[in-house]
Amino acid sequence: MDKQQNSQWGTRAGFILAAVGSAVGLGNIWRFPYVAYENGGGAFFIPYLFALLTAGIPILIMEFTIGHKYRGSSPLSFFRLAGKKAEWIGWWGVIVAFVISTYYSVIIAWAIKYTGYAFTLKWGQDTKDFLYGDVLNLSEVPGEIGGFVPGVLIPHLFVWAIVFLILFGGVKKGIEFANRIFIPLLTVVFIAIVIRAVTLPGAMIGLQSFFQPDLSKLTNATVWVAAYGHIFFSLSIAFAIMITYSSYLPKKSDVTNNAFITGFANSSFELLAGIGVFAALGFMALQSGLPIDEVVSVGVGLAFVAFPSIINEMPGMNVIFGVLFFLSLTLAGISSLISIVETYIAGIQDKFNISRGKAVFFGVSLSMLFSLIYSTNSGLYFLDTVDYFINNFGVAALGLVEVVAIVWVFKKLDTLQTHADAVSDIRLGAWWRISLRYITPAVLGYMFIDLLRLNIM
Ligand code: PHE
Ligand code: NA
User: Fold this and answer.
1) Which residue from 332, 343, 337, 286 is spatially nearest to 91, judged by alpha carbons?
2) CATH number of 14-456
3) Domain residue spans in the chain?
4) What is the complex's ipTM, to 2 decimals?
5) Residue 188: how many other CB atoms lie within 10 Å
6) Average pLDDT taken over every residue of the chain
7) What pLDDT digit, counting tens, does each position of 209-238 carry?
8) Is 148 helix (H, G, I), strand (E, B) or coil?
């Protein structure tokens, strides 16, 4: 009885917190601000909102409905949806989730390492040294594994220990419990950081450049592609994750409304992150006298190079600011990582019919072993390569296959709509159907062809 109860969410809020926990991650804090900045600043909000409303939320509703209706891990849900010929779509998602878990975990290990380091504030002048020097000790030479970086290896093993404990606790007493603590804490910490950032001298310089719309970018297809790509990553959709999480919903649960709440919560977080990060960059521009586009560095560099230097220069309370910033990355990262790992643990459990405990033990050990390669000196090099491959081929291609299979091959849109409408307050109509039938396949199809063109031809 108790065991049964522990394999479902205890409350609606518990499910929403877990879904938001999965969605709000490293992507919101370091990825969104620079993607928006590079793709037209304020003008990016137009393709972003379009992608959210025509792909993000419609697919989220679809995945919540699949999980809720078929009540299984992603492979099992697809099997129940259309038999053996659909099951592999679920496995594709499981494999993508597995690969992401291996490198996502090491970024969290860096954040933990930096949280500790922020206490000392011995960042020094050239913060690039953190990556390649004292702190992370990564190699700039690709392919040279070198050895383990001890300072990273220990936090990395610690990340896996936490993930193991949370997942071992079960859906309600593990995942839901952890998110009930992490997400409110993350929200409070993050709002504190943003308030501090926007009150720094120079904040306006940053905000202006973040919001300043470059409307000419709107006619550029890559900007639209970037918006779609980001929405997929940011909402954790087309990874089998949201199907898994919604399979633990009680029978009576509103799926449509939950999807809207999750989608808007994730976007609010992203917007807040953009404001905080750019306000801090504006401060940096003022301090250094450099134009803003020279202080904006992309990717890993934003959180792990630019931020430490900002923290260093900050007037008063910079220790607290630094600790809180890296703590928020850690919390956001762990709540996403547990959703990724849960996805393939659920797949393993259903397929081999083993106990949850065994599946958790086996799944976490396997991920941990593979993830150790990123704890070596060449970690960053492997990470960049795998991340690029996964984001593009894993996500864009899988999203396309998933939507086309459900809508056009197995023709399940009506079945899913009937199910969602039966349990939800909001009725699904033309907006949902047109988005999934035409808009999403067209945009993802274009993205995929473009990707092949860039990589092969
Ligand atoms: N949505 C998470 C983020 O924004 C990333 C993520 C991707 C989480 C895939 C789970 C699975 O960072
Ligand atoms: Na996100």
Assistant:
1) 343
2) 1.10.4160
3) 14-456
4) 0.97
5) 12
6) 89
7) 999 999 999 998 889 988 998 999 899 998
8) strand
